[in-house]
Amino acid sequence: MVMVDESTRAGGHRIPQPAPCAAHPHSGLVHVDGICRCFFGGPAPEFAPPTISVDDLPTVRAFHPPVDLPEGPSIWS
Known about the structure:
Layout: H1 6-9, E1 19-20, E2 29-31, E3 46-47
Antiparallel strand pairs: 1-2, 2-3
């Protein structure tokens, strides 16, 4: 007996969910077309899309503010 889910029976198309790559488990690579088939010559994995946008990152200054150095003898001289 073959199990068929409702979306297939109704003629609908299921959108595959991204799956982590089993051949490269700690690399952050995913297969956007479903399960990993790297061991069987399947399509190559891709880097996962970012989960945050640039707007969510904190503001970073491009240059460090000036630093006041102490006057007098230096330990470097």
